Amino acid sequence: MAKIMTAGPVQVRENVRIARSKVTTNPDVDPAFAEDYKALCDKLEKIMNCSGRAYIMDGEGILGLEAACASLTEPGDRVLVMDNGIFGRGFDGFVSMYGGEPVMYTKDYHEPFDPDELRAYLEKDHDFKYATLVHCDTPSGMLNEIDKLCPILAEYGIMSVVDSVSAMFGEPVDFDGSYIDILCGGSQKCLSAPPGLTMVWVSDKAMDVMCNRKTPIASFYANITAFKTYYEDKWFPYTMPISDIMGLAAAVDNYLAEPDVLQRHARIAAATRAAVNEAGLEMYVNSGYSNTVTVINVPDGLIDRQILDTMIEDYGIMITGAFDVLAGKVIRIGHMGENANYEDMVETIAALQATLSKLGFRLKANMVDVFNREMGR
Ligand SMILES: *Cc1c(COP(=O)(O)O)cnc(C)c1O
Question: Which residues pair with 331 in a beta bridge?
């Protein structure tokens, strides 16, 4: 099996896999489960500096995005959909599905949102119930400055829904400090547990708004308010996936045991970018590089599939292309969580260098040497 150096799911550490295989209690009836679940949510709240509440829902990361829109949107609500990437644009579907009116704020996919431009836009029109934005838009590797953008939204009385699925635990997030209202995460990116769980962090204000709607939430599974009193009532809306959650708890403990985890991501990402640039390859984005994924334009004359297949067939390393408007245009190396270590990354960069050479691309520098130099090896 190839080593997965993809932008999620990523490699899973053995102690997380073992945690998922342990004997379990019945999470429906054993009050000990609600205690463990709450202890884990408490840790998640602390990690993101959230004075609201965190909840873990049973479904892959997309569930959190849908749940935020399902729980906040009432028919006719205007919602600002901040679009400078594929996931950013994709929020329009969730907003309209639940009866909202998405208003697109579309910008160049090569640049992060400019806080001053956003402010100028809102000065003219700020009649929005909430805005959606993506922290790291994974297909392009675009990192948006949520710590600057969300406070501006808040100034204009607009709540924010932030998809940080592929950034959190690899890039800093300050929920309270950035005035975020709903933050969405998944198990299979930087946290490095298998796919299957969504995490949402919810401000007191957002919970209040969701609980005081005029119309009922048009979903059962995507209704965040169904979790509000789980602890008091020792009751969840559906049977919780206890083994998945035990794995997540182990992954969270791994994260907490490594104080320098964000610096590790920053270092690996900077060394990767240096290797890419000095070799004469181009990154897709012009600025706003996420430390969790590197997205490289497919060099002229090459085909993404050739690169990806050669990486697997000759070197046993899986990286990916992208989809939608970026299909065929880029290749992506995911250096998030368990993937963001020297050994796996130097192996991946060596394989990419050899693959590109084999396919006839003339590199301007030895990528491994540059990577090693930047890593201080
Ligand atoms: C991975 C990811 C999600 C989760 O969705 P899948 O495409 O189903 O993996 C959501 N948002 C972003 C930005 C992601 O990278």
Answer: 296
Walking along the chain (377 residues) 10 residues at a time, the average pLDDT comes out as: 97 98 97 97 98 98 98 98 98 98 98 98 98 98 98 98 98 98 98 98 98 98 98 96 98 98 98 98 98 98 98 98 97 98 98 98 98 97
Start-end of H helices in 181-260: 204-211, 230-233, 242-256
The DSSP secondary-structure symbol of 29 reads T
CA nearest to 111, candidates 87, 84, 148, 89: 84
Which residue type, as a one-letter code, is found at position 46?
A: K
pLDDT of residue 215: 98
Give 347: exposed, middle or buried? Use CB within 10 Å, 0-12, 13-18, 19+.
middle
Amino acid in position 60: E
pLDDT number for residue 88: 98
Query: Residue 335 and residue 315: Cα distance in Å, rounded?
Result: 17
Is residue 261 within 8 Å of 255, Cβ to Cβ?
yes
Length of the chain: 377
pTM for the full model? 0.98
- The binding-site residues of ligand 1, defined as CB within 6 angstroms of any ligand atom, are 8, 60-62, 87, 134, 137-138, 163, 165-166, 186, 189
Distance 288 CA to ligand 1 centre (A): 19
Q: What is the pLDDT of residue 349?
A: 98
Nearest one of 355, 352, 357 to 335, comparing CA atoms: 352
Is-contact 190 337, C-beta < 8 A? yes
Report which DSSP code applies to 357: H
Closest ligand 1 atom to Cα of 139: 15
Cα(192)–Cα(17) distance, integer angstroms: 10
CB environment 45-73: b (16+ within 10 A), e (fewer): bebbebebbbbbbbbbbbbbbbbbbbbbb
Six-digit token string for 183: 């933050």
Residue 208: count other Cβ atoms within 10 Å of its Cβ.
10
pLDDT at residue 139 in the model = 98
Tell me the C-alpha distance between 5 and 339, whole Å: 6
Q: Which residues 6+ apart lie within 8 Å of 197 measured at CB?
A: 56, 57, 58, 59, 60, 186, 187, 241, 244, 245, 248
Give the number of the atom of ligand 1 that is nearest the alpha carbon of residue 87: 13
